[in-house]
Amino acid sequence: MSEYRIQGATGEWEVVIGLEVHAQITSKAKLFSGAATDFGAEPNSQVSLVDAAMPGMLPVLNGECVRQAVRTGMAIEAQINAWSRFDRKNYFYADLPQGYQISQLYHPIVGEGRLMISLDEKDADAETKEIGIERIHIEQDAGKLMHDQHPTQSYVDLNRSGVALMEIVSKPDMRSPAEAGAYVKKLRSILRYVGSCDGNMEEGSMRADVNVSVRKPGDAFGTRTETKNVNSVRYVMQTIEIEANRQVDVLEAGGTIVQETRLFDPDKNETRSMRSKEDAHDYRYFPDPDLLPLVLDDQFLADCRASLPELPDAKRRRYEGDLGLTAYAAAVLTAEAETARWFEALMEACGDQAMAKAASNWLISDLFGALNRLGMDIEDSPVSPAQGAELLKLVADGTLSGSLAKQVFEIMLETGDDPAKIVEEKGLKQTSDTGAIESVIAGILDANAEKVAQYKDGKEALFGFFVGQTMKAMQGKANPQVVNELLKKALA
Amino acid sequence: MSVDTATVKKIASLARIAMSDADAEAMVPELNNILGWIEQLGEVDTSQVQPMTAVIPNTLRLRDDVVTDGNVRDKVLANAPRAEHGFFAVPKVIE
């Protein structure tokens, strides 16, 4: 990939990007209370007196949230800090009843790690780049404010207040919107494999603060701005492009960049300054006196490590190496944990590694095509892996031709029936009955005597025409191999 | 280390404590006395001493990931100066 540069009046500019991704930790209860975390509940119904910061309430740490943060750290090959501590980040806002957020500034639970991004969609190993991760810390989410329900009041829903987040802070290692997009996608993929976050950006389970600065190539880092709460991969990429171009315009007009917090407005396609929080950066962090240091023992760490699944890169390489899939197919099948899980269930039901290529082709083109059409995710597929395997076996043993298999598949999608039953009931079985095929061929050659003559004069491309006519006459049920053989004999 | 009136007023504002000029003025020597005392403590060499976080050996207890609380909206909203439709209602704050 060529380097990403912004063409300014004074020459080329390089963009430097770092991301802080807030990922909601998958847990039933909140980080420091026993209230539920389900999305979309009635306002303030999932709030305990701890989350509402009533006087005298004490936080008690949820062990599962710790476990998930540690597993995530291990998945990005990061240093795990067996001793970490919680700090209070103090500020006043209507969505934060405590007046402080419990976070980890000085001693985060996870230290430096890394992940690899791919810059070539066809072959994930063709062009890669390592993106450093500075740290992961655990913190509380704030509540939600609604401003459009009342002319003079804002409404506060504390259901999210106290939900556990991981803040995953990258190093300023990205240099283009595409790299940042690939980073968010890769991180999301890993989180979903690990099971520490559902990665659902629409529901706010994952959102990014985007740090952008520009510089002339080779210069020191410029002053950065931070655009808050960007909630899709596309918006992250748009934010970078818009913000970097804005900075170039300011600098080339003789201005300076102010280190500030900004907002991305997708409707106006612009970022703008959040000036109202001028004092907010003085957070007066200090260790939370309600919470002792968090100490992890070796057994806890070993259990976390043992519970890690095969991660996307390892799985992708195994699919290429052991199953002989193309780099592209392996990347598509492993990008999402659900897809890989489905494919592995399909392979298990097939019971034969030699069917891997046929299975991957079918899944990527037929099944994905159908799910796309139906607007469904693979978890909700109307066809089960066992049914898919049965269909593939019917093709492998010659019962169905490729085109018959497609017909059967359509009926499976509609009815949910097993393929063998459909083949039986609809009489869609492929025939290798040479007598029947020969008599159809004889009829077709008789009806097209002129073309037969042309073929015999050397116009061999007509062979396909005869195959097509035969298949059509037999409603696609003839075994194409047998048709080929018999046609060659008849035309010889 | 010492503070002046401006610093006291800034700290008060960050902590959302209303303070008259006279009160802030009076607070300066009080805070400086405290800071002086802390500085005196700082003279003790503690470079070889682990910070103590509890008077008895103790580490953080972890809770199981089980829902045991919530569904107490009326209690949660009971002390709110204003609540509407199940929400806290506050003077409009908008970015």
UniProtKB/TrEMBL annotation, chain A:
GO molecular function: ATP binding; glutaminyl-tRNA synthase (glutamine-hydrolyzing) activity; transferase activity
Name of the top EC class for this enzyme: ligase
Keywords linked to the UniProt accession: ATP-binding, Ligase, Nucleotide-binding, Protein biosynthesis, Transferase
Record domain Asn/Gln amidotransferase: where: 341-491
Enzyme Commission numbers on file: 6.3.5.-
Catalytic function, reaction form: L-glutamyl-tRNA(Gln) + L-glutamine + ATP + H2O = L-glutaminyl-tRNA(Gln) + L-glutamate + ADP + phosphate + H(+); L-aspartyl-tRNA(Asn) + L-glutamine + ATP + H2O = L-asparaginyl-tRNA(Asn) + L-glutamate + ADP + phosphate + 2 H(+)
Pfam families hit by this protein: GatB_N, GatB_Yqey
One Gene Ontology term from the biological process aspect of the record: glutaminyl-tRNAGln biosynthesis via transamidation
UniProt similarity note: Belongs to the GatB/GatE family. GatB subfamily.
Role, per record: Allows the formation of correctly charged Asn-tRNA(Asn) or Gln-tRNA(Gln) through the transamidation of misacylated Asp-tRNA(Asn) or Glu-tRNA(Gln) in organisms which lack either or both of asparaginyl-tRNA or glutaminyl-tRNA synthetases. The reaction takes place in the presence of glutamine and ATP through an activated phospho-Asp-tRNA(Asn) or phospho-Glu-tRNA(Gln).
Protein name from the UniProt record: Aspartyl/glutamyl-tRNA(Asn/Gln) amidotransferase subunit B
Native source species: Sphingobium boeckii
Automatic annotation (TrEMBL), chain B:
One annotated GO biological process: glutaminyl-tRNAGln biosynthesis via transamidation
Keyword list, A-Z: ATP-binding, Ligase, Nucleotide-binding, Protein biosynthesis, Transferase
EC number, UniProt record: 6.3.5.-
Catalytic activity: L-glutamyl-tRNA(Gln) + L-glutamine + ATP + H2O = L-glutaminyl-tRNA(Gln) + L-glutamate + ADP + phosphate + H(+); L-aspartyl-tRNA(Asn) + L-glutamine + ATP + H2O = L-asparaginyl-tRNA(Asn) + L-glutamate + ADP + phosphate + 2 H(+)
Top-level taxon: Bacteria
Subunit structure: Heterotrimer of A, B and C subunits.
Its biological purpose: Allows the formation of correctly charged Asn-tRNA(Asn) or Gln-tRNA(Gln) through the transamidation of misacylated Asp-tRNA(Asn) or Glu-tRNA(Gln) in organisms which lack either or both of asparaginyl-tRNA or glutaminyl-tRNA synthetases. The reaction takes place in the presence of glutamine and ATP through an activated phospho-Asp-tRNA(Asn) or phospho-Glu-tRNA(Gln).
Protein name (database record): Aspartyl/glutamyl-tRNA(Asn/Gln) amidotransferase subunit C
Encoding gene per record: gatC
